[in-house]
Specification:
The protein is built from six helices and no strands. By secondary structure, the protein is mainly alpha-helical. Helix 2 (21-40) packs antiparallel against helix 3 (46-60) and helix 5 (89-113) runs antiparallel to helix 6 (124-145). It is elongated.
Length: 150
């Protein structure tokens, strides 16, 4: 994306996500996703690389879902600051956990990348951590759909 494309995307993000809490949750998730993809660049073992790419693709599929949750949360409770609205506290908590879990998933992938010799269980540790990301994004979606929030 060129300079002007980045500026246009930034304006769109400001409009849809605001500049506060929901934008930060969205951006944090994307930084974790970017970090995970950066780790892939240094993996030499072909089988391990294939497993890690499969996980990366599954994690990337969460991106539009996270954006949808953040956009809807911004519509319901606009935020230009860092105060968590009580009615959407569960949504924010789940998104924060998803961002943290994605960071630990990238960390687990980096540890595998640094392993000496073949990895006997492949990307199992990374898969386990990625599962928590999937669960937490689904939890954020459930929390957003809860009747008492609407």
């Amino acid at each position: 994306m060129g300079f002007f494309g980045a500026v246009r995307q930034g304006r769109k993000d400001d409009l849809e996500l605001g500049k506060g809490l929901w934008r930060r949750a969205h951006d944090r998730f994307h930084r974790g996703l970017d970090r995970y993809h950066q780790v892939l660049e240094g993996v030499d073992d072909d089988q391990l690389y294939k497993e890690l790419v499969e996980i990366a693709n599954e994690l990337a599929e969460l991106s539009p879902r996270v954006r949808t949750v953040c956009v809807e949360a911004q519509k319901r409770s606009p935020s230009d600051g860092l105060d968590v609205p009580g009615s959407l506290a569960g949504v924010h908590r789940a998104l924060s956990k998803a961002g943290n879990s994605l960071a630990t998933t990238a960390e687990a992938a980096a540890m595998l990348r640094l392993a000496v010799g073949p990895v006997p269980v492949g990307a199992l540790s990374v898969r386990r951590r990625a599962e928590s990301v999937f669960e937490q994004v689904a939890d954020a979606e459930r929390q957003l759909q809860a009747p008492e929030i609407q």
